[in-house]
Amino acid sequence: MDAQMKRGLLEACVLSLLLKGDSYGYLLIQEVSALMPISESTLYPVLRRLEAAGQLTVYSREHNGRLRKYYAITENGKAQIQSFLKEWEDVNRVYTFILTATTKEENTHE
Amino acid sequence: MDAQMKRGLLEACVLSLLLKGDSYGYLLIQEVSALMPISESTLYPVLRRLEAAGQLTVYSREHNGRLRKYYAITENGKAQIQSFLKEWEDVNRVYTFILTATTKEENTHE
DNA sequence: ATATAATACTATACGCCGTATAATATTATT
DNA sequence: AATAATATTATACGGCGTATAGTATTATAT
């Protein structure tokens, strides 16, 4: 997927994944990868940003003798998903315009 | 609209507007503004990029005693819109995931 | 036993692109 | 005479996805 198109989508995607329960970096990478290509160097900064924005909290738990960082979505984070969905209405309006313009263009060739 | 969400959308939007006929900077700004907020400092670089990519061509015509730059979409540009629409399928898949995850989350509170 | 893969996270430098701000110049309107 | 509308360009900034690379532990395969 084109890098430009990921912008704004990624954070909402990560937050949505956390809705079904706390998770950690490595697992999140696998889960996000099922939806779009992602590298560690993209995901971890996203997690840092979401934490700084109070949209998720971080805590450590021991796992196989090591500390693993778990990420939990906050109420703030849930509200952020709603904001995203609302913003997306505008995006979809533009997309619909492009689609319509393209369809009309095709018709002029008939 | 959030700046991140415009990325990738803007170029396709401008190209789509040119499908119905050649246009010029000032008019394009008005037309794009109807779909999303845009400033000159965003649009003109977009036009330069599209020109560099061979997706539009530029020519000058006199208008009210002054030269005005007109922009015309190329076949390359039309193909780019199609590429955009195809890429957008991936974007929509992620959006649908977020929407579904949010709906499920709401259900757990019922 | 040891090499390899999987797990788990961090750091740095780069490049794209939307934005604010500002400058320039002409024509139309009040 | 002043102001708004028309029309375009330049510069510096900041957000963020990416490539690349480094570090460290545990499980699996040969």
Please tell me about this protein's structure.
- The structure is a homodimer.
- Chain A is of the alpha+beta class.
- Chain A has a single domain (about 5-110), classed as Arc Repressor Mutant, subunit A (Orthogonal Bundle).
- Chain A contains 5 helices and 3 strands, in the order ααβααββα.
- In chain A, strands 1-3-2 form a 3-stranded antiparallel β-sheet.
- In chain A, helix 2 (about 10-20) packs across helix 5 and helix 3 (about 25-35) packs across helix 4.
- The radius of gyration of chain A is 18 Å and the shape is elongated.
- Chain A starts with a helix and ends with a helix.
- The model of chain A has no long low-confidence stretch (mean pLDDT about 90).
- The structure holds a DNA duplex (30 and 30 nucleotides).
CATH class of chain A: Mainly Alpha
Please, what is the oligomeric state? homodimer
Radius of gyration from the alpha-carbon trace of chain A, in angstroms? 18 Å
Going by CATH, the homologous superfamily of chain A would be: Winged helix-like DNA-binding domain superfamily/Winged helix DNA-binding domain
Largest interface comes to:
A-B, 34 and 34 residues
Q: Specify the number of helices of chain A.
A: 5
Content of β-strand of chain A: 15-25%
Shape descriptor of chain A: elongated
Biggest sheet features of chain A: 3 strands, antiparallel
What name does CATH use for the topology of chain A? Arc Repressor Mutant, subunit A
- Global mean pLDDT of chain A: 90
CATH architecture of chain A: Orthogonal Bundle
The spatial strand order of the largest sheet of chain A comes to 1-3-2
Number of strands of chain A: 3
